[in-house]
Specification:
The chain is built from 10 helices and 12 strands. The longest helix has 17 residues. By secondary structure, it is of the alpha/beta class. It has an 8-stranded mixed sheet, with helices on both faces. Strands 3-4 form a two-stranded antiparallel sheet. The chain has a two-stranded antiparallel ribbon with strand order 10-11. α5 packs across α6. The chain binds adenosine-5'-diphosphate (ADP) and magnesium ion. Adenosine-5'-diphosphate binds next to α2 and α9.
Length: about 280
């Protein structure tokens, strides 16, 4: 094929894949960042919240959208209580905590109410969270995704314009298989993967010795396998867990050594993706 023909074919392909879905930007925010993993319990929500406040530390105006309908954790992670106000019975005003605008299914129903919903109800809830929330002049929305490759992921992939995603995993081979599935889903649905992050990748004892509790280098190797960037490692740290349980994210304390990892990551991503 001539170079010109190849270019035309590529641009036709691009326009088909872009037009396949009518993806809309979330109103009220310049950029949208998705934090995901195909597996639960690898630290997505912890990472999403701490990275969001690291972006805030850089002077960005940040919103956090908890898209985990079955297991919302934003209210607990931010010690956020009460219900958001509505406007004209149609729109939801996000709640504000520590300077960030926040929305979560856990704020709309009681946090401990089990959501026994079928797919269409989840899709409709995601539409509400992405289309009916009155975000106010944000630089960035950080989306905390549920685990898996199910209805929530597909609804986002088909209807919301996402500027980039980060995939979190622990280095355990059990988790990495799910990561491979997650990467392929994003590639297929045209969501840009900024890179992969290794969470809980080691624990540093009082003796300074590092323990690779969940294995070693697995996330970095998986990134390489798929030609994706490896963005860095977050250690397993008691202060992160304690701060989460208290509902005051560690990265609000910008001087903590773990916060410095988040701040550095936010700085790099801002430069490459959000300027
Ligand atoms: N780097 C870390 N160090 C210590 N504890 C962590 C770390 N990352 C996550 N956790 C803890 O692990 C548990 C699961 O994290 P969570 O963010 O809820 O995962 P997910 O959203 O992927 O299900 C929580 O108790 C959280 O406090
Ligand atoms: Mg979570």
């Amino acid at each position: 094929m001539s170079e010109k023909k190849a270019k035309t074919a590529q641009s036709a392909k691009d326009s088909i894949s872009l037009n396949k879905f009518n993806k809309k930007s979330i109103k009220g925010a310049r950029f949208t960042l998705m934090i995901s993993s195909a597996k639960g319990g690898v630290g997505k929500s912890t990472f999403a919240v701490n990275l969001a406040f690291a972006f805030q530390n850089l002077g960005m105006k940040v919103g956090i959208l908890d898209a985990d309908i079955y297991g919302p954790s934003l209210p607990k992670l931010l010690n956020l209580t009460g219900k958001p106000e509505t406007k004209d019975g149609k729109f939801i005003i996000p709640m504000e905590k520590y300077g960030a605008q926040c929305i979560s299914m856990g704020l709309l129903v009681s946090e401990t109410t089990p959501m026994m919903w079928r797919g269409p109800m989840v899709i409709s809830a995601i539409k509400t969270l992405t289309e009916k929330v009155l975000w106010n002049d944000l630089d960035l929305i950080v989306i905390d995704m549920p685990p898996g490759t199910g209805d929530t992921q597909l609804t986002f992939a088909q209807s919301v314009k996402i500027d980039g995603s980060i995939i979190i995993s622990t280095p355990q081979s059990l988790a990495l298989n799910d990561v491979r599935r997650g990467i392929q889903m994003f590639d297929k649905t045209g969501i840009d993967i900024i890179g992969l992050v290794d969470n809980m990748c080691f624990f540093e004892g009082d003796d300074g010795k590092k323990y690779n509790i969940f294995g070693e280098a697995g996330v970095e190797e998986t990134a390489k396998e798929f030609g994706k960037d490896f963005l860095g490692k977050i250690p397993l740290h008691t202060d992160l867990r304690i701060a989460s349980d208290k509902g005051r994210p560690l990265s609000l304390n910008a001087d903590h050594k773990i916060s410095k990892i988040f701040n550095d990551l936010a700085k790099r991503i801002k430069k490459t993706n959000f300027e």
